[in-house]
Design goal:
single chain; three-stranded antiparallel β-sheet; about 60% helix
Length: about 180
């Protein structure tokens, strides 16, 4: 516990002495001092590094003398991920569940809190979503009407062309009947 705040305490002792020493080093660095940056900055020795440029120099994300990022990454991802998952499931989730869910698995009414600002934002989002859906439905209906009109026009054109073909076919037949056969 640091400053009355519960923090994760990873297991320190391990079967491997180097792992135990690494765990001690990681836990000794708590609370971690982290520098976050996606920027590449130029160091005085002309090397590009991830970090931050300040008037007094460069703070590097990956430099253990400047930042505990590598230790925190090692703790979270490389060495103690399974322990963190287990702790989250067994301690935090169970604590939350026992405080907010009764024995039958139903949510306890007192734990359901709807903040008025949240409710207003939710209602505004619902209205905006409904308006967008109505707009899209209207666009779709207009598009559908245009397609139906175009289909009807093309069918009329097709019928007209078909009747012209029938008329021409009958003219050809009439002319063939007039021509003497040998």
């Amino acid at each position: 516990i640091f400053h009355q705040i519960n923090v994760y305490a990873s297991p320190i002792v391990s079967e491997d002495e180097s792992t135990t020493e690494r765990n001690r080093s990681i836990m000794a660095a708590m609370p971690f001092a982290i520098i976050g940056s996606e920027e590449d900055v130029m160091r005085p020795d002309n090397r590009r590094v991830k970090g931050r440029q300040y008037p007094w120099g460069v703070s590097e994300v990956e430099n253990d003398d400047h930042c505990d990022f590598k230790k925190l990454r090692s703790l979270l991802i490389r060495t103690h991920m399974l322990d963190l998952i287990t702790t989250t499931e067994e301690v935090h989730y169970e604590s939350y569940r026992s405080a907010h869910v009764d024995a039958n698995g139903k949510i306890i009414k007192s734990s359901i809190k709807k903040d008025s600002k949240f409710k207003e934002e939710e209602d505004a989002l619902r209205r905006r979503f409904t308006e967008q859906v109505k707009g899209e439905e209207s666009r779709f209906r207009q598009w559908e009407q245009r397609l139906i009109s175009e289909r009807d026009r093309l069918n009329k054109d097709l019928e007209l062309e078909h009747s012209k073909i029938q008329s021409l076919t009958m003219e050809i037949k009439a002319l063939e009947d007039r021509v003497p056969r040998k």
